[in-house]
Amino acid sequence: MKAVTKSSGRIEPIVFHTINTIFMLFVVAITLYPFLHTLAVSFNDGSDTLAGGIYFWPRAWTMENYRAVFITGTIYHAAFISVSRTVLSTVFGVFLTTMLAYTLAQPQYILRKKIGMLFILTMYFNAGLIPNYFLIKDLGLLHSFMVYILPSMVSAFNLIIIRTYIRSLPAGLIESAKIDGAGEFRIFWKIIFPLCTPVLATVALFIAVGAWNSWFDTFLYASSDINLSTLQYEMMKLLGSTMSTNNDPSALAGNQHNQMQALVTPASIRAAITIVTAVPILFVYPFLQKYFVVGLNLGSVKE
Q1: What is this entry's stated membrane topology (predicted)?
Q2: Which of 7, 56, 93, 117 could form a disulfide with 207 if both were Cys (CB 3.0 to 4.6 A apart)?
C-alpha cells in the first residue's frame, strides 16, 4: 500500500508539469501566431499573398512591400516627429501627472476630493469633436507641434492609478522627511518619485504606446503641414493610396511609384506598415516589463 502511494506521489507532479507545459506552449503559439503571420506576409510577394496559405514563413521572398513603405522621402521626417512626440509626451505626462497625483494624495489638502472629482468627470463626459477642435484653435495650437503634447499631458486614468499607488506608500516616509526639514518638492523628487518607479513604468508604457500609435490628431490639427506629419499618419495615407490604386487598374500605368504599387497589395502593404510601426514599441517594452510587478518600496519602512 505504501509503495502504491509513493509511486503515485512521484507520477502526479510529472503529469501536472507535462500538461502545464503543453498548455503553455499552446498559449504561446496562439499569442505569437498573429505577429509571425504578419511578419511573413510583409516579406511575401503581394500577388502571391492573394493566393493564401501564408502562415509562419514567406513563400515568395521580396522586399518590395518595405520599399513601397520607405519610397517617399517624407517617411523619415515623419518618423522623427513621431519619436519626438512620443518621448516628450511620455516625459512630461509622467512627471506632471505624478506631481498632481502626489498633491491629491495628501490628506491635509482640503480640495483634493473636489479636484479629483473634476478629473473623474472628464472620463465620463466629453464635449465632442467639434468643440474640442475649436478649443484647440482658440488656444493657437493648430499647425503647431505642441498640439501633440499639451492636450494629452495629464490623463485622468493615469492620475487615478498613480494616486492610488502613492496612497499605498507608508505615511512614515513623508512624516520622517518633514521632521528632517525637507520641503514638499524635495519629498516628491527624492522619496516619492523613486518609489513610484513600478507604476510610473506602467503609465509610461501606456502614454508611449498611445502617442506612438496616434494619427487622428494629426489628421485633425496638422494634416496640411507636411513638417508635422507623423509616421502613423503617413502610413495611413500610404495604405489608403495603395488600396485605391489596386481598385483602379488604369491608375497603375504611368510613373515608377505606380508601377511599384502594382507589385504590392493592400494585404501585403498593411502587414509591412504594421511591422514598421510595431517594432519600436517592441524594443521599449522589455526595459519596462520588470517594473510591472515588483515594488521598490517593499521593506523600506516597517511599522
Answers
A1: Multi-pass membrane protein
A2: 93
